[in-house]
Design goal:
With about 270 residues, this protein is α/β, with parallel strands linked by helices. The chain has one domain: Glycoside hydrolase/deacetylase (TIM Barrel, Alpha-Beta Barrel), CATH 3.20.20. The protein contains eleven helices and ten strands. Strands 1, 2, 3, 8 and 9 form a five-stranded parallel sheet that branches. A five-stranded mixed sheet has the order 4-5-7-6-10. Helix 2 packs parallel to helix 10 and helix 8 packs parallel to helix 10. It is globular. The chain starts with 11 loop residues before the first strand and ends with a strand.
């Protein structure tokens, strides 16, 4: 039952990505200085630990980053890009899009395109909505601003083509069980060791069934202290079991080739 055929030479696809929020969400909520400092850990320490570990395993990934963070920390963004990683969009100030009107939401997309062009050198190809929340306008704005892929929805276990009227983009589904934040920060319901075993179980399932699994992490969470070992163990397992770990844009290129042979699932966007 392999639903996503991996590239030749690989056993399955492991989409590892990071939400580089820094303190954007805390700024948006009007948090206190102590809470803001938690987000800044990613900028001062967390990201660099991740970059060194990814370099050790020769892996290049995607950092979904609010454009406010791109604008505030351009040197960090340049460092990430110089190491071969992709910067994709993640709102402007980590705002909830479902709480914005059309004009305000479009302003988020407009500012993001301008900031990315100025600092990254090109408009973003990929998008992940903050809090994994879309509004009824988000799909039209993604298509209007030329996004090639999104990673926000939860209606499948493998990437698919999301069609809306006469246009489309690629969707890389996500799942709260495959995110570090709920378990290590919000509810604090699992130890890093327990979380690692839960994720490895999902990866083993993907190896033998779907051919794909997506794991989302945050630098200020997974990069703190010994938690970095969770990522290292994942990378070790991936290397040992023949995983392909692509950047979002590389996965889009591969899906485009598969779609030519009609090997990619198609979902019609459902409007409410």
């Amino acid at each position: 039952m392999v639903l996503l055929r991996p590239p030749n030479g690989y056993r399955y696809v492991l989409f590892i990505s990071f939400d580089l929020d820094a303190e954007s969400a805390e700024i948006y909520r009007g948090s206190d200085p102590n809470t803001l400092s938690h987000g800044r850990f990613s900028v001062y320490r967390g990201v660099y630990k991740l970059l060194d570990l990814l370099e050790k395993y020769e892996v290049h990934v995607t950092f979904f980053t609010p454009s406010w963070v791109v604008d505030r920390y351009p040197t960090l963004i340049e460092e990430i890009v110089s190491r071969g990683h992709e910067i994709a969009a993640h709102g402007y100030l980590h705002e909830r899009l479902d709480q914005l009107g059309l004009e305000d939401e479009e302003n988020v997309f407009k500012k993001t395109s301008e900031i990315f062009k100025d600092i990254v050198g090109q408009k973003p190809l990929g998008f992940r909505s903050p809090y994994w929340r879309w509004s009824k306008n988000t799909i039209n704005l993604l298509l209007k601003y030329g996004y090639r892929y999104d990673s926000s929805l939860m209606d499948d276990e493998v990437p698919y083509i999301l069609k809306h009227r006469d246009r489309q983009l690629y969707e890389y589904p996500v799942d709260w069980r495959l995110d570090d934040w709920p378990y290590l920060e919000y509810y604090r319901s699992l130890t890093p060791r327990q979380l690692l075993e839960q994720w490895l179980e999902e990866i083993r399932y993907a190896e033998n069934n779907t051919g794909y699994v997506s794991i989302t992490m945050h630098p200020q969470c997974i990069g703190r202290g010994a938690r970095i070992k969770v990522l290292e163990k994942l990378l070790e397992h991936a290397r040992r079991t023949g995983a392909w770990i692509p950047r979002g844009k590389d996965l889009a290129d591969y899906l485009e080739k598969l779609s030519e042979d009609r090997e990619v699932i198609v979902h019609q966007y459902v409007e409410y």
